[in-house]
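As a next step, the fold was encoded as tokens, giving this record:
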Amino acid sequence: MDALNRKPGDTSNDIDSGTAVRPPAGAGTESGTAAQTGIAAQAGAGKTDTGRAPESAGATSAGQDADVIVVGAGPTGLLLAGDLAEAGLAVTLLERRDGTTSNLSRALAVHARSLEQLDARGLADELVAGGHRLPGLQVFGGAVLTAARLRTRFPFVLITPQYEVERLLARRARQAGVTFRYGSEVLGLTQDADGVTVHLRAAEGAAEDAVGGAAEGIGSLRAAYVVGADGARSFVREAVGLPFPGRAVVRSVVLADIRLAQAPDSPFTLRATRDAFALIASFGDGWYRAIGWNRHVQAPDDAPADLDEVREVTRLAFGTDYGMHDARWISRFRSDERQAPAYRVGRVLLAGDAAHVHSPAGGQGMNIGLQDAANLSWKLAAVVRGHSPDSLLDSYQDERHPVGEAVLRSSGAMVRLALVHSAAGRALRGLSVRLLMSLRPLSRRAIGGVSGIDIAYPAGPGAHRLAGRRAPDLHLAGGGRLYDALRQGKFVLITPEGELPEDAPLAPAPDRVVTASWASGRRTALLVRPDGYIAWATDATAPAERATALRTALDHWTGTTPAPTAERTLHSSVQI
């Protein structure tokens, strides 16, 4: 579960890693406003941390400080910024916090599909090595969704603190050349036909002349696009006028990072009773996250919580508080279900908690944000680089908004079942648990959805049955894998051996597509997107028909007529 997105003082289920202030007078928030005054020099606002070498910097348009500005340096913003920079774009990442590290955790669960996305970026194995592998996910009433049957390199739920995910993603982003600007508070933004201007204020104590000499620390930066990954209280979302409809699902949840005199049997344990629920999760370093809800203690969001309250709710749920002591912080929050109606307004897009928040059941919050970023990054890079039309960005809304809706429904159902009070409700919960545990197809479908493995995107009428589906990690001849190939951030084209000779006119440009071949006799041709989903497939056997279909697919997905030479690097021996 990731009812763990907390910092001291937080009262709702947001990451709150960006901005939450009103624009200054005259800054404007309406789309189409052409305000570009006070554009900052390259020093930007706030503390600057960049790993970009001059020769690797993306070429921005005249009058722009970056190709893309990402607001919010949580997991979603970090993955997105790193992807864009690795694609050759100039990326600035704005973060309101001062950049100091913190061991206060937020999310703890990393699901299989998120691990696959991290694997495609060379980060999964390092993350897994430092975490706890759980064979399944405990949800309610003793029900466990078993992950062992998932077809993936990662048939488990990884328990690891969010700050470990952020550490790896931040390191990658810096190595790719992302410019980090800490202590940068976004005050407003305006957009026109050519780009977006973000108005900034440097935090007190930020680097000298951090805003290019603008008075009182106020300045601005301009980019072709802006992505708001700045949490549930997203200023970017508010600035473009998007509502965030929804409601609180559960209030007055207490949580604490504590030590225990007695360790629970599992590094992640959850239990719900008639009057309370609680979970305890291990960080692996002697610290634990305890979180709980007591039906009889419904304090306001801003009411202080203490260790005695955490002990009480833990005893109500588990019958023991495991001798908890030495809390390093304690907080209270509420859990909301909310979703923006649109993830895009012109040149401004939303991702992660800025676009959707939901109940903690299932631990999907950080994971959904990571997958938002993976879906958006390659599309945004293709548009900025001129390989694809701006309309490609509309598919981000088409594909990810329904996923957000589904998570709101499923996580909401789980938390409501956990909180039922009536005898009839508890009987229904018991029946649900028995069905989930006894019907293998039902439990497989449940863990497939929660893990993200079964997420598929609309493919359109007449598309191949594989189009839109997640591509499994195909083992390649010579010891390689499909997700190794995806680390290049390109499409991967898999065809039968010998179908694309070196001088084939259909061979794609190597800067956009890597070609591979089946080592088996399989005749299916596949085009796998940079985010690991199948863009196109064909079983046609007639050479002319296959050639026409392939050319059409490459033109549509890579935005270019294929070049006359190919880069053959991989050979696959495993069929889908």
Residues 394-418 form the longest helix (25 residues). Residues 189 and 198 are 4 Å apart (CA to CA).
